Amino acid sequence: MKLTASRKVVKVGDTISDMKEGVNAGVWTVGVIVGSSEMGLSLNEYTSLPELDKQNLISKTADTFMKNGADFTVKTIEELPELIDTINLLISEGKRPRSS
Question: Looking at the predicted structure, is the pLDDT value of residue 100 above 90?
Answer without folding.
Answer: no
